[in-house]
Amino acid sequence: xxxxxxxxxxxxxxxxxxxxxxxxxxxxxxxxxxxxxxxxxxxxxxxxxxxxxxxxxxxxxxxxxxxxxxxxxxxxxxxxxxxxxxxxxxxxxxxxxxxxxxxxxxxxxxxxxxxxxxxxxxxxxxxxxxxxxxxxxxxxxxxx
Length: 144
Known about the structure:
The chain has 1 helix and 13 strands. The chain is mainly β. It has one domain: 3-Layer(aba) Sandwich (Rossmann fold). The strands form 3 sheets. The chain has an 8-stranded mixed β-sheet with strand order 6-3-2-1-7-10-12-13, covered by helices on one side. Strands 9-8-11 form a 3-stranded mixed β-sheet, with no helix packed on it. A two-stranded antiparallel ribbon has the order 4-5. The longest helix is centred in the last third of the chain and has 7 residues, at about 95-100. The two termini are about 15 Å apart. The mean pLDDT is about 85.
């Protein structure tokens, strides 16, 4: 089944830039940080964005909210991923909190990283959530 609505991210620091994907015929959702949580908003090409306190682009608070049932796939930002499906992010825990909640836990996830950032093993904490797959510029690794 093809994903109709994809939750993605606007790249930050050393994350792969996904902008070229956002012109495809899909519905896109992007997160906003609200307190210690992520909320998802619908976004289309050329709609205005704002920069949050971390320096990351995000939709305006007035953009249409998306619910878990609206989203078919989550592209998760990562600095590195390992062969077990764990990821290293920038340390805020936003995605691990989201992915461990019951309404989001079953959503397919894919981490997008550069090939050099695919490592045999990363340090793991009890709250870390595994990804279902990892994509680099050279390969797609299906994990679950």
